[in-house]
């Protein structure tokens, strides 16, 4: 399993949300051609999830704040990244019925990204992994297959 990310501020696009979307698509196209030897990285939507039209390589995208990221694997994968910011996390955790193991903002974001990654997987979650990026982002990977994060790389466009 590989995880690639980039700073969306490298893209000269006015709307922030569009920057994340376009940056993630750029990561997909670049990695497909340069790391996975996919000549035609055309995408299609299957079960409300983008996938390669001419490859079985799986991926999941996410963007938050200044980063867009894409997680690639040979098996289905769910991935989410969120920028940690101060908020009334206790109220949200209660409403979402998150079981916080510790009463902290970091634990809230771990639960939130797990929730999102699980939703994106569209499958039973058997293996989970979470970590932080630059101390102010949390990311979570969900899979129904055992995996090892082989590559964790920032891309510069």
Can you characterise this structure?
This protein has 157 residues and is of the alpha+beta class. The chain has a single domain, classed as Ribosomal Protein L22, Chain A, CATH 3.90.470. The chain is 28% helix and 34% strand. Strand 7 and strand 8 form a beta hairpin. The protein starts with a strand and ends with a strand.
Give the strand order of the largest sheet, numbering strands 1, 2, ... along the chain: 4-5-1-9
Residue windows where pLDDT falls under 50 for at least 5 positions: none
Number of domains: 1
Taking all Cα atoms into account, the compactness measure Rg is 16 Å
The general outline is globular
CATH-defined fold name: Ribosomal Protein L22, Chain A
> What integer is the average pLDDT?
95
- Distance from first to last alpha carbon: 22 Å
Concise synopsis of the structure shown:
The protein has one domain: Alpha-Beta Complex (Ribosomal Protein L22, Chain A), CATH 3.90.470. It is 28% helix and 34% strand.
What distinguishing features does this structure have?
3 helices; 157 residues; alpha+beta; Ribosomal Protein L22, Chain A; three-stranded antiparallel sheet; globular; four-stranded mixed sheet
Task: Spell out the blueprint of helices and strands.
Layout: E1 2-7, H1 16-34, E2 43-46, E3 49-52, E4 58-64, E5 67-73, E6 77-83, H2 89-96, H3 105-121, E7 127-133, E8 137-143, E9 151-154
Parallel strand pairs: 1-9
Antiparallel strand pairs: 1-5, 2-3, 4-5, 6-8, 7-8
